[in-house]
Specification:
The complex is a heterodimer of chains A (111) and B (183). Chain A is 38% helix and 28% strand. Chain A is built from 3 helices and 6 strands; from the N terminus they run H-E-H-E-E-E-H-E-E. In chain A, the strands form 2 sheets. Chain A has a 3-stranded mixed β-sheet. Chain A has a 3-stranded mixed β-sheet with strand order 2-3-5, covered by helices on one side. Chain B is of the alpha+beta class and 183 residues long. Chain B is built from 5 helices and 5 strands. Chain B has a 3-stranded mixed β-sheet, with helices on one face. A two-stranded antiparallel ribbon of chain B has the order 1-2. In chain B, helix 1 crosses helix 2, helix 1 packs across helix 3 and helix 4 crosses helix 5. The longest helix of chain B is centred in the first third of the chain and has 27 residues. The chains are: A alpha/beta (111), B alpha+beta (183). At the A-B interface, helix 3, strand 5 and strand 6 of A face strand 2, helix 4 and helix 5 of B.
Chain lengths: 111, 183
């Protein structure tokens, strides 16, 4: 099971959570896109555990809409990502880390 | 850490001033120059003094490097706010806190034209916020800025749950009010 595949599910789940505007992509992804390489699951980092094959640890980099309570949004993301990835892939999600990258106000961010 | 760095700085600047004084004297006076050269060559020949001198200069070098690293690192908050739940850790980036401060300053309707926010760590688990603003000229600065401070503090605490120790507002410039675009 590839990392991009898991990352796509995680990204979709994170975007469905309330108060999430988008996911922050790193500069390397932008570089890859510039060269025309498709990067799956933007704004999500997936790490497989070395000793256990079936366990993954996921880091999500969301950008939150201004006016929402960041800890609550982060909890929602954690629960949703954990539930969705476990349901769709059958892997056991060991941890979901949320690193809030930014806040946008409702007008200038994509709703 | 802070105390250690300060002591290191004091020692370093003390040594720097002593050596610069000696060098100045050497440049001005020929006798002192020749005597210093004799002294240095004498010290160089003695085995124990050589080792002492090497250790001493290594300490000065380390102090210099530590001061450099500290002054580069201390500008902004690097460590972002981490709290962990049973699923994983939640990490609120510095950019996120800064843009909350900016947004709440701008929505306060206090005549702020542009603003820049910076977040610094404070004692305990708290943060300090510094806001550099450009205002319009029809603003009562003390009253309005008190309002902005209050708002920023409340907004950051409500949205992130991070306690805010201080909000500093600096007014850097005032623009004429004619430039204002009514919305």
């Amino acid at each position: 099971m590839s990392r991009g595949f898991v990352a796509q599910y995680a990204a979709e789940a994170a975007l469905q959570a309330d108060g999430v505007s988008s996911l922050d992509t790193s500069g390397i992804v932008a570089l890859k896109e510039a060269f025309g390489v498709e990067h799956e699951g933007k704004g999500v980092k997936v790490v497989f555990r070395e000793d256990k094959d079936e366990a993954v640890s996921i880091t999500v980099y969301p950008i939150v809409i201004f006016g929402s309570n960041i800890p609550e949004v982060a909890w929602a993301i954690q629960e949703r990502v954990k539930a969705d990835v476990e349901k769709f892939t059958g892997l056991s999600v060991e941890s979901v880390h949320v690193h809030v990258k930014g806040v946008v106000s409702r007008e200038d961010g994509p709703a | 850490m802070n105390l250690f760095v300060r002591v290191a700085f004091i020692i370093l600047t003390f040594f720097l001033s002593v050596f610069s004084l000696i060098f100045l004297l050497m440049m001005i006076n020929n006798d002192i120059l020749s005597q210093m050269i004799v002294l240095v060559t004498y010290l160089r020949d003695q085995r124990t003094y050589q080792i002492v001198a090497i250790v001493f200069w290594l300490v000065v070098l380390v102090l210099c490097l530590a001061g450099m690293v500290y002054s580069i690192m201390s500008g902004r908050l690097r460590r972002s706010r981490i709290r962990s739940t049973d699923i994983g850790s939640i990490d609120i980036g510095v950019d996120a806190i800064e843009s909350i401060a900016l947004n709440s300053a701008k929505t306060a309707q206090c005549g702020i034209k542009t603003a820049k926010a910076k977040v610094f760590p404070s004692k305990g688990d708290k943060i300090n916020v510094q806001l550099n603003t450009v205002l319009y000229s029809d603003v009562e600065v003390p009253a309005m800025m008190a309002k902005v401070q209050d708002r920023i503090k409340k907004d950051i605490e409500r949205y992130t749950g991070i306690p805010v120790a201080r909000v500093q507002v600096r007014v850097s410039r005032v623009e004429p009010v004619s430039a204002r675009v009514e919305r």
